[in-house]
């Protein structure tokens, strides 16, 4: 097979070396926009001969496009217009959605396979090329349904020759995952490098003090800006989301350090230590294969009606009890007082409160299940506990616990969720899944999907808020749009609000509970204690049973929970007005994008960059001022403008990468 390589850097050069040595390619023809790279590649035996784009297109059986992502779409379009009918082109860039969109309407789209072999170093150029770079790594093939089956097989054969495992996924999901596992690490390294350079002007001091930890962390900061600046631009929305989640974690570290909360800092570090399971390659194959299913299909999750597992259900479903089971007397008195209110459906108590360090309250353990069992017998109410591993599941079920829930720290770890799912095989028990600590809807969905995969149909979600960024009145910011989106994707999923953890203080619980009811939540899980101020955990967010009853009694329950609302003429007329405004807004945005494309054409013809920072800042400042006068929040204006701005960049990028007529 004759293989063409366009872009003779680390990736293209390394692929060429192994494809020759392993007899996949009889001859490799290459080209690069840097003549020096071509000379080096020839001398190093990376390519046998140089060829122009036209020559490579017309003579090669398979073409590897290994250029920076900003120029790849234009070259790809040019190649597709010239290749023979049997020639296959694959690219190896680390962003996929942009290039797939750029060639979506090309008549020879089926001859292109969008790929991303996940391997590399911080070094660049043909001199960095090395044999066996890809051995035992993973290559992602995106949107394979848009490629001819024979083309996909040829790409898979190439990666097999490189000793890589091929997995398939959608381009958008690829870009989102890669933003976290690759792009974010590079930005972090760049930022660390800039931080140290700005603070430590004396390079000699850096050299003398820097250890191997600093060197390994900042290593990626040596990566080429020609390669990475376009990647960040093309994957801006996903990179921004990853950065947001990362900044939240940084702020949590800053908060615990500023307040001298060494135990919490220790716990965060210990939790982060679990990343070693990934770095050590444990379950790597299963983890990568799970990417194939990451384009979530709500039809795969079967959800039984909540009436199947809660008899005589009245809205709201109320789950209540102490944050932690502390003593038998405390559990029994709290549960009996809650039952006496007539407002509680399910009793809860924290049994396991794991802490990394030994001198903190870690929960009473299994003995607490005995107390909860006695409370169940005394009150006739169902019981629920949090489980974080297989042993917890087994102990809870052995003691007759009716409902299990998975906590926020567990939801964030797919390994732990899968362990729980495995323990639930052939078990008929309701399971509630709390949202992960960070605002990541896909993690939440993934946990639900894993539990569903164990055959559990009695499923529900608990919204307990997300790690906050900046100062808010909440312990964990509600970010209502995320549970709303989860409910949109899984309409039958019962949604339960946890105002105790959202608020972090008892004064706000009533307010958040009402908000949850206004948003059609199924129920509430509220922590209650006979003497909250002396509780061994989360004292500020627990209420006495009498206050719990008062909160429930004062809730206003509005029509529409069933999803069927009888609309009168007034409401219908107002909705029609909203629909009309929405239609007009979309039309105006479409017209705006047509103007944006004209701007992109002008910038292309005059060799101007797409992003004009000063112009963007002017737009933001002007819009903030106008939005305030119009009664629109700054937060909304900023989110709206960022979305429109990114769409504008996408349209201009498409214009920039079009071939000249």
Automatic annotation (TrEMBL):
EC top class, as a word: isomerase
EC nos: 5.4.99.5
Keyword presence, Signal: no
Alphabetized UniProt keyword annotations: Oxidoreductase, Transferase
UniProt cross-references to InterPro entries, sorted A to Z: 6-PGluconate_DH-like_C_sf, Aldolase_TIM, Chorismate_II_sf, Class-I_DAHP_synthase, CM_dom_sf, CM_II_prokaryot, DAHP1/KDSA, NAD(P)-bd_dom_sf
Keyword Oxidoreductase: yes
GO molecular function: prephenate dehydrogenase (NAD+) activity
Span of domain Prephenate/arogenate dehydrogenase: 1-287
SUPFAM superfamilies noted in UniProt: 6-phosphogluconate dehydrogenase C-terminal domain-like (SSF48179), Aldolase (SSF51569), Chorismate mutase II (SSF48600), NAD(P)-binding Rossmann-fold domains (SSF51735)
Chorismate mutase domain mapped to chain residues: 565-656
Entry-linked SMART domains: CM_2
NCBIfam families: PRK08507.1
Name of the molecule in the record: chorismate mutase
Biological source species: Pontibacter locisalis
């Amino acid at each position: 097979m004759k293989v063409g390589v366009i872009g003779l850097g680390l990736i293209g050069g390394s692929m060429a070396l192994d494809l020759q040595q392993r007899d996949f390619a009889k001859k490799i023809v290459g080209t690069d926009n840097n003549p020096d790279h071509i000379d080096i590649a020839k001398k190093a035996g990376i390519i046998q001969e140089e060829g122009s784009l036209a020559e490579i297109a017309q003579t090669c059986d398979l073409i590897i496009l290994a250029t920076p992502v900003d120029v790849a779409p234009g070259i790809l379009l040019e190649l597709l217009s010239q290749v023979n009918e049997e020639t296959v082109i694959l690219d190896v860039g680390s962003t996929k959605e942009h290039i797939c969109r750029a060639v979506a309407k090309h008549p020879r789209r089926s001859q292109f396979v969008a790929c991303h072999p996940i391997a590399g170093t911080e070094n660049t150029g043909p001199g960095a090329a090395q044999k066996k770079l890809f051995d035992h790594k993973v290559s992602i093939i995106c949107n394979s349904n848009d490629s001819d089956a024979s083309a996909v097989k040829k790409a898979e054969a190439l990666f097999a020759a490189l000793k890589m495992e091929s997995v398939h996924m959608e381009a958008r999901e690829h870009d989102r995952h890669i933003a976290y596992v690759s792009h974010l690490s590079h930005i972090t390294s760049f930022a660390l490098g800039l931080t140290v350079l700005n603070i430590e002007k004396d390079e000699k001091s850096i050299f003398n003090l820097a250890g191997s930890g600093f060197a390994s962390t900042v290593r990626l900061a040596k990566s080429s800006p020609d390669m990475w600046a376009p990647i960040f631009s093309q994957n801006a929305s996903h990179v921004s989301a990853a950065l947001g989640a990362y900044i939240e974690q940084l702020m949590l570290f800053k908060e615990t350090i500023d307040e001298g909360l060494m135990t919490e800092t220790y716990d965060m570090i210990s939790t982060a230590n679990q990343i070693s399971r990934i770095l050590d390659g444990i379950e790597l194959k299963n983890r990568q294969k799970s990417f194939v299913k990451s384009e979530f299909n709500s039809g795969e999750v079967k959800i039984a009606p909540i009436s199947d597992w809660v008899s005589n259900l009245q809205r709201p479903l109320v789950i209540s009890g102490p944050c932690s089971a502390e003593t038998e007397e405390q559990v029994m008195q709290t549960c009996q007082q809650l039952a006496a209110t007539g407002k509680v459906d399910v009793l809860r108590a924290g049994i396991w409160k794991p802490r990394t360090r030994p001198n903190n309250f870690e929960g009473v353990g299994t003995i607490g299940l005995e107390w909860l069992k006695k409370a169940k017998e005394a009150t006739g109410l169902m019981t629920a506990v949090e489980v974080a591993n297989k042993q917890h599941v087994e102990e809870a079920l052995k003691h007759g616990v009716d409902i299990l829930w998975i906590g926020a720290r567990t939801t964030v770890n797919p390994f732990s969720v899968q362990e729980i799912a495995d323990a639930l095989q052939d078990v008929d028990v309701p399971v509630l899944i709390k949202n992960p600590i960070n605002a990541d809807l896909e993690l939440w969905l993934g946990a639900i999907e894993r539990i569903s995969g164990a055959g559990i149909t009695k499923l529900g979600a608990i919204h307990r808020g997300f790690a906050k960024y900046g100062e808010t009145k909440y312990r964990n910011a509600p970010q209502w749009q995320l549970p709303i989106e989860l409910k949109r994707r899984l309409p039958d999923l019962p949604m339960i609000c946890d105002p105790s953890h959202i608020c972090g203080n008892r004064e706000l619980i009533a307010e958040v509970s009402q908000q949850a009811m206004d948003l059609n939540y199924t129920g509430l899980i509220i922590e209650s204690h006979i003497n909250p101020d002396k509780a061994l955990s989360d004292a500020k967010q627990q209420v006495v049973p009498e206050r719990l009853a008062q909160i429930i009694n004062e809730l206003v329950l509005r029509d529409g929970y069933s999803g069927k609302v009888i609309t009168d003429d007034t409401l219908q007329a107002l909705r029609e007005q909203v629909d009309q405004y929405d239609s007009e807004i979309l039309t105006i945005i479409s017209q705006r994008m047509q103007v944006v494309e004209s701007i992109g054409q002008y910038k292309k013809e005059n060799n101007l960059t797409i992003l004009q920072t000063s112009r963007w800042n002017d737009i933001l400042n002007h819009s903030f001022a106008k939005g305030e006068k119009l009664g629109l929040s700054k937060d909304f204006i900023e989110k709206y403008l960022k979305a429109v701005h990114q769409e504008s960049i996408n349209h201009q990028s498409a214009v920039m990468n079009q071939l000249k007529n």
